[in-house]
């Protein structure tokens, strides 16, 4: 245990066996289907506040933010469209496959690729969160979406898919991508209002 890095030790502190109910909850939280109502609410809120033209611009920017986040994360895992961009980068195993912690980790499912840095779940949800929070501009919604982003991010540690460092890097990628697309959306929104 002494030879483990701080990141590995923190992972083992946060990863535990919560039983079948918590396993199911975290697997569901980590999935897509549960969050469809949230995406529908976001679309409704943007349309209600700005109109359908701004909604289309928002949806394009949201797709770009989430797609860009996912592609940037793929560079480090050697997956996706940009997988060969940094071919000599030493990809880091997910905790479930990491020799130092795999026997100590609680693993719900092994149906994942071997590499976990940088977390695309954390990146794409952070991109969605920051972009939608800035566009919707409601403090209560901002707190709720921040909680959702952190919950999804934590679920990835619980499921032994990512180390905390993977999550932090993913959140950083997502926040930068989401904010950049917010700036693009503002420009598009101004153009749409003129036309």
In short:
By secondary structure, this protein is mainly alpha-helical. Helices cover 66% and strands 0% of the residues.
Describe this structure in words.
The longest helix has about 30 residues, at about 165-195. The protein has a domain at about 65-180: Vanadium-containing Chloroperoxidase, domain 1, CATH 1.20.144.10. The protein has about 200 residues and is mainly alpha-helical. The chain is built from 7 helices and no strands. Helix 2 packs across helix 6. The model has no long low-confidence stretch (mean pLDDT about 95). The termini are far apart. It is globular, with a radius of gyration of 18 Å.
Helix/strand layout:
Layout: H1 6-14, H2 19-29, H3 36-50, H4 52-77, H5 120-136, H6 139-158, H7 164-194
Helix pairs in contact: 2-6, 3-4, 4-5, 4-7, 5-6, 5-7
Attribute tags:
0% strand; mainly alpha; 66% helix; Vanadium-containing Chloroperoxidase, domain 1; 7 helices; 195 residues
């Amino acid at each position: 245990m002494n030879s483990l890095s701080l990141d590995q030790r923190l992972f083992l502190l946060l990863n535990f066996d919560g039983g079948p109910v918590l396993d199911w909850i975290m697997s569901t939280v980590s999935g897509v289907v549960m969050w469809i109502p949230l995406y529908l609410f976001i679309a409704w809120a943007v349309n209600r506040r700005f109109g359908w033209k701004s909604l289309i611009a928002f949806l394009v920017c949201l797709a770009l933010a989430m797609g860009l986040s996912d592609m940037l994360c793929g560079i480090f895992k050697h997956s996706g469209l940009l997988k060969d961009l940094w071919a000599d980068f030493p990809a880091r195993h997910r905790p479930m496959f990491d020799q130092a912690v795999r026997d100590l980790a609680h693993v719900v499912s092994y149906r994942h690729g071997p590499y976990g840095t940088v977390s695309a779940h954390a990146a794409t949800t952070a991109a969605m969160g920051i972009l939608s929070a800035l566009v919707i501009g409601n403090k209560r919604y901002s707190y709720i979406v921040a909680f959702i982003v952190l919950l999804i991010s934590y679920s990835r540690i619980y499921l032994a898919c990512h180390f905390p460092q993977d999550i932090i890097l993913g959140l950083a990628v997502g926040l930068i991508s989401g904010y950049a697309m917010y700036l693009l959306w503002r420009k598009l929104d101004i153009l749409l209002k003129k036309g």
